[in-house]
Design goal:
The chain contains twelve helices and 14 strands. With about 325 residues, the protein is an alpha/beta fold. It has one domain: Ribonuclease Z/Hydroxyacylglutathione hydrolase-like (Metallo-beta-lactamase, Chain A). It starts with a helix and ends with a helix.
């Protein structure tokens, strides 16, 4: 297995995911944690800066989703852009350091329309890190009220210290209700619905649905093809993740393009497989917990075995995922 596995093991130990610590919520999504692990191989006074640099160096991939809608992936959570005659709407922002490359892609889109709105699916830095740069382009920043609250707090996660975000990086427009917010881009015939998702990955999650293009971005409530990270330190829990997947299934139809926070473009069938995996693992861990098994015993019972080949290849390894589920039930 070599150095890579050792690094991952050290990383999980540091995150409290080995040795049954209850700090299971303090891990970051796979790309982040992998970058962090690499950063640790060269000790640095600022792990956050090193992690940002490592992630920002990831090439940007482009996938066409619908007429005038594209997905960019690579340096952070998946970004979706709706390019209209009078304006662009951007969902999520990648990490600092990747902004120049992203802006180049946005500027190269036909029509040269300004960015009118940038949306944060939740507070994590691989999604909201470039808010200040987007505000400088003249874009408003739209997010859930809890995203503003979480960004204004200091956080210590996985050896990285996050100072409160500066005023210039804060959302300019927030909403609270679980009803969606709808706005129309004049001249582009597109409606963008935003809706709060009850605590799932964090307590700041929203979905973003492009009604005409039939594209649904579920943020980090959906990790396509890997066990999800659930941030218990800011309200995340397994039952909320399942409820979020159910919500996504209710909102979509067989032709909807469903964008996960991490992983390849998906559809209803892929989201159904993810939901079924989450439910099966949750039910098994819940049974073990009700029988009085400790977290260590629940992990040793290997309740994820049949899913590990398909879902266990990301950073969140099977044992770690069982710990997260156990601790957020």
């Amino acid at each position: 297995m070599g150095h890579h596995e050792m690094t991952r093991r050290e990383l999980l130990k540091r995150a409290g995911l080995l040795g049954g610590a209850a700090a299971a919520g303090s891990v970051f999504p796979p790309a982040l944690a992998r970058a962090f692990a690499l950063a640790q191989q060269t000790p640095t006074p600022d792990p956050l800066a090193a992690t940002r640099a490592q992630m920002a160096a990831t090439p940007i991939q482009q996938t066409s989703l619908a007429n005038m809608i594209v997905m960019f992936s690579g340096p952070g959570g998946n970004v979706v852009v709706r390019n209209g005659e009078e304006g662009k709407v951007v969902v999520d922002t990648f990490v600092q350091g990747a902004f120049a490359g992203l802006k180049q892609r946005l500027d190269a889109m036909p029509g040269g329309a300004p960015i009118v709105a940038t949306i944060n699916t939740h507070w994590h830095f691989d999604h909201a890190d470039n808010n200040e740069s987007f505000r400088k382009t003249g874009s408003k920043i739209i997010a859930h009220e809890n995203t503003r609250r979480r960004l204004s707090q200091p956080h210590d996660l996985l050896g990285m210290h996050f100072a409160p975000a500066p005023a210039a990086a804060m959302p300019t427009q927030t909403f609270v209700q679980s009803e969606h917010l709808t706005f129309e881009l004049t001249g582009t015939e597109e409606y963008v619905d935003l809706g709060y998702i009850q605590p799932a990955h964090t307590d700041t999650d929203i979905y973003v649905y492009f009604a005409i293009g039939d594209v649904l971005h579920l943020g980090d409530t959906f990790f396509n093809g890997s066990y999800p990270f659930i941030d218990a330190s800011t309200g995340g829990k397994i039952n909320g993740m399942i409820a979020a997947a159910e919500k996504g299934l209710k909102m979509s139809n067989p032709t909807t393009r469903i964008v996960p926070g991490h992983g390849p473009l998906a559809d209803r069938a892929a989201l159904t497989r993810y939901r079924d995996m989450l439910v099966t693992v949750r039910d098994r861990v819940q049974t073990l917990k009700r029988e009085g098994r400790t977290e260590k015993e629940a992990v040793a019972a290997k309740p994820t075995t049949e899913f590990d080949a398909a879902w266990g290849q990301g950073l969140i390894q099977p044992d770690a995922f069982v710990s997260i589920v156990y601790n957020t039930l």
